[in-house]
Automatic annotation (TrEMBL):
Source species: Roseovarius pacificus
Protein family according to the UniProt entry: Belongs to the DnaG primase family.
Name of protein: DNA primase
GO molecular function: DNA binding; DNA-directed RNA polymerase activity; zinc ion binding
Gene expressing this chain: dnaG
Lineage: Bacteria, Pseudomonadati, Pseudomonadota, Alphaproteobacteria, Rhodobacterales
Coiled coil: none
Length: 650
């Protein structure tokens, strides 16, 4: 029956949840504060010794931190008294002194019809179970025995058999006086397209009753005995009782087992669930022949915070897992996730149980992967990332998936987890890291560095190494002060070769922790290198005057500074290699080509020095006005004189 507007609100206002629940539990006086309506007790829905059941009497809601049961006074009466919604309302209304409104004939008629349909379905369960014991069910009994199901198991799961007859169920129900429209509405028969009598939906199939959480049979699943049948498994059609997208096989018993501490396992089919339950994994459910739906996922999370998706160890099983990931990402909440237990190749849970027993299944469940791990495997397994374009494509694909997560906190943690996995793929482990290496096609290759002769060449400025270290320090310090721009320079930082071991250690820490934010990054640096490492870096003259250090958190300033320093660092290293090569040639027979290359190198050197001067002027103006490094100019004049001398002596 329908209720008038405001009736339930008035009922909840008049009802004390603490009084309703107090009839069923003993309050924990040490944890409870009755004056504030904050009450705790052992949960009445599952066996426990600790007081994990919480009642907020002021808000009128309860929640169990053990089995996750939650609701208001109405739902509490429904669950504890095993009554339907209207009966629970009637009980509470009587206690609150509120008269029940008059019945709505239409609503009552609808409720009565659902009750009639459920009664017809129970008649069908009895008929199918009886048929399994007849001669017609001999082959089905033999098959079930071969699958390890004894008489007790058949009774527990109410397994039956639909004989290979066109009107077997129809005639049985008609003999019980059931009306035609009720049989058809239950999905047990279909109308004939040729004008004849309706015919049975299920024929020559092993029958599995599908019950809702309250225990009412709402549908059937049938496994074909004929291997040539078009549909190996067939479910009841959608009815007034049955919506397969909102139903889980074995829901009620699984919820009860999960409340006692068992992990919720999601298998693919009826036989997997039955085999798991018989082996002691009572909290097992299955979707009904289709991919997991959003409604089913929410139902699973109401049973357990982290269901384990147990899928067959084949390509189809992995595809199903990937579909579940795409469905779940937007729905993730704090504490609500999934894990994935992939069975050995070519086996389902039932196969593994029969081959190796429950310990083997438990081992697979214990090794279940978190969802982020399977997401990473999907995007990387069997692929080679030996080019910037392929790496960029991987980054894009993962970013698109992470963007699906609505919860910002979870999205952030997924981003960090992906960064960690990316680090493991593209960067060496610390125990095997050697400076001057990079990932290429999954292997570590040396990065070309300047030749030894370059460092000792007379054509290289004496303070080049110091200048390079300062540029590296400015880049690292800018990223440490403003890690928000890290992603834009991640690729450049990965291939940057640091001349100073401490800089290389800082580079590694930035790559690993920058995505977590400045506070976490600073803490990780301090833990790994000590507090003095960061202090020493930030007080270097070239670094201390850098705009991003003076204005931490200014993303635009950091972006411009890092880009400029990286460009100059790259230019200087390329120039050093060219000058060194020219110097080596000069040691032999000089010719026009050598002279030309020296001239080109000198011009490049002069342009680089101009850039350095401009850069230093930019920093120095902030504190002490413009200054020019005369030592470098004198050194470069000497370089030009040497080149001129070489030309004259030829």
């Amino acid at each position: 029956m329908s209720l008038p507007p405001g009736f339930l609100d008035e009922l909840r206002t008049r009802t004390s949840l603490a009084q309703v629940v107090g009839r069923k539990v003993m309050w924990d006086t040490r944890k409870s504060n009755q004056g504030k309506g904050d009450l705790w007790a052992p949960c009445p829905f599952h066996h426990e010794k600790t007081a994990s059941f919480h009642v907020d009497d002021r808000k009128g809601y309860y929640y169990c931190f053990g089995c996750h049961a939650k609701g208001d006074a109405i739902s509490f009466v429904r669950e504890t008294e095993n009554v339907d919604f209207m009966e629970a309302v009637r009980i509470l209304a009587q206690e609150a002194g509120m008269p029940m409104p008059e019945r709505d004939p239409q609503a009552q008629q609808k409720a009565d019809r659902r009750t009639q349909l459920a009664e017809v379905m129970d008649m069908a369960v009895g008929h199918f179970r009886l048929q399994l014991k007849t001669g017609a069910g001999a082959a089905a009994r033999e098959y079930l025995a071969g699958r390890g199901l004894d008489e007790a198991a058949l009774e527990r799961f109410e397994i039956g058999f639909a004989p290979d007859a066109w009107q077997g169920m129809w005639d049985h129900l008609k003999g019980k006086g059931v009306e035609d429209d009720l049989i058809l509405a239950c999905g047990l028969a279909k109308p004939s397209q040729k004008g004849g009598r309706p015919y049975d939906t299920f024929r020559n199939r092993i029958m599995f009753p599908i019950r809702d959480p309250r225990g009412r049979c709402i549908a059937f699943g049938g496994r074909a005995m004929d291997p040539n049948d078009n549909a190996k498994y067939l479910n009841s059609p959608e009815t007034e009782l049955f919506d397969k997208s909102r139903t889980l096989y074995h829901h009620g018993p699984a919820r009860e087992a999960a409340g006692k501490g068992q992990p919720l396992i999601v298998a693919e089919g009826y036989m997997d669930v039955i085999a798991l339950a018989l082996a002691g994994f009572g909290a097992s459910v299955a979707p009904l022949g289709t991919a997991v739906t959003e409604h089913q996922l929410q139902m699973m999370w109401r049973i357990a915070d982290e269901p384990i998706i147990a899928l067959d160890g084949d390509t189809a099983g992995l595809r199903a897992a990937h579909r579940v990931i795409d469905l779940a990402l937007p729905l993730l909440e704090a504490g609500k996730s999934l894990r994935f237990a992939i069975m050995p190749e070519g086996q389902d849970p039932d196969d593994l149980l029969r081959a190796k027993g429950a310990p083997a299944v438990q081992a697979v469940l214990d090794g279940a992967l978190p969802m982020v791990q399977l997401l990473w495997q999907r995007e990387t397994e069997g692929r080679v990332f030996d080019s910037p374009e392929r790496r960029a494509a991987l980054d894009k694909a993962l970013r698109e998936k992470i963007k699906l997560i609505r919860d910002p906190s979870i999205r952030s943690h997924y981003g960090q987890a992906i960064k960690d996995l990316r680090w493991q793929l593209f960067n060496p482990r610390r125990d095997s890291f050697k400076p001057g290496t990079r990932a290429r096609a999954g292997k570590w290759q040396p990065i070309p560095t300047a030749m030894p002769s370059t460092k000792s060449s007379l054509l290289v400025a004496a303070d080049e190494a110091a200048q390079t270290r300062l540029r590296e320090a400015a880049i690292l310090a800018s990223l440490i002060c403003t890690p928000e721009v890290f992603e834009e320079f991640e690729s450049a930082l990965e291939v940057m070769v640091c001349s100073d071991p401490e800089h290389d250690r800082l580079r590694e820490l930035i790559l690993h922790h920058a995505v977590a934010g400045a506070e976490t990054l600073h803490a990780q640096i301090e833990a790994a290198m000590g507090p003095e490492a960061l202090e020493n870096l930030l007080r270097l003259p070239h670094v201390a005057l850098a705009p991003p250090v003076r204005h931490p958190g200014n993303a635009e300033m950091a972006r411009l500074t890092i880009a400029a320093e990286l460009a100059k660092l790259s230019s200087e290293r390329g120039l050093s290699a060219e000058v060194s090569e020219a110097a080596e040639d000069l040691a032999g027979l000089a010719d026009e080509a050598v002279t030309w290359r020296l001239g080109q190198a000198a011009e490049e050197r002069q342009r680089a020095l101009r850039n350095q001067t401009e850069d230093r002027v930019e920093y120095d103006l902030a504190e002490n006005g413009a200054r020019i490094n005369r030592d470098e100019r004198e050194q470069f004049d000497a370089l030009l004189e040497k080149i001129s001398y070489t030309k004259r002596t030829r």
